[in-house]
Amino acid sequence: MAAAGWRDGSGQEKYRLVVVGGGGVGKSALTIQFIQSYFVTDYDPTIEDSYTKQCVIDDRAARLDILDTAGQEEFGAMREQYMRTGEGFLLVFSVTDRGSFEEIYKFQRQILRVKDRDEFPMILIGNKADLDHQRQVRRNVAAGKPIVDNHVTQEEGQQLARQLKVTYMEASAKIRMNVDQAFHELVRVIRQQKAQRSSWKLERTRILLSKNPRG
């Protein structure tokens, strides 16, 4: 596989991004909003589709090849195949669905296992943030205790991101909140980790050469 951010014949950087997450979290809506500036309400959650977008990120032109994956469990084997070629991953859950939030661990571990790495470019996205009013902790007035709530707080998202050592953003495809920022930030993470790995390899080579000087 070509190195992350490899350049095509025109000298333009190219990145393969993969959007993963449980079913119904809005992966397709996020992707289509980013590509076409359009909020799609009806789509088949079993379809995996790919898109391409030319953009400029931090004054550097880039072509993003984006794969929108199906979230259903029966597509797990196919998802693993796509993970092998991905250079960066958006881990998406819905802030209105705690089950999708808890699934993030599974996706993150699967990516690291497939890549055989301790870390890899990823960012965590809490989607459907426009429904924030639905996730306020409700109170049982009589008992004065919180009712079991299916929604995920911003603090919980931030805590998970710290555990996974990734950036966390809340987004909304519906109102186009942090959509471009999410994809652009993932490219920045890819660039940063690539630069760090290159620096580490150069340092390792320098040390080896110093231990084995010519002559």
TrEMBL record:
**Main location group:** membrane
Any one cellular-component term (Gene Ontology): plasma membrane
GO MF: GTP binding; GTPase activity
Database matches in PROSITE patterns = RAB (PS51419), RAS (PS51421), RHO (PS51420)
SUPFAM superfamilies on file? P-loop containing nucleoside triphosphate hydrolases
Membrane topology note = Lipid-anchor
The cellular location(s) given in this protein's UniProt record come to: Cell membrane
In the record, biological process GO terms are: signal transduction
Q: Does the keyword GTP-binding apply?
A: yes
Identify the keywords attached in UniProt to this record, alphabetized.
Answer: Cell membrane, GTP-binding, Lipoprotein, Membrane, Methylation, Nucleotide-binding, Prenylation
- Where does the UniProt annotation place the signal sequence? none
Q: Which domain of life is it from?
A: Eukaryota
Give the UniProt family note: Belongs to the small GTPase superfamily. Ras family.
Q: Which NCBIfam families does the UniProt record give? A: small_GTP
Protein's name in the database: (raccoon dog) hypothetical protein
Q: Which organism is it from?
A: Nyctereutes procyonoides
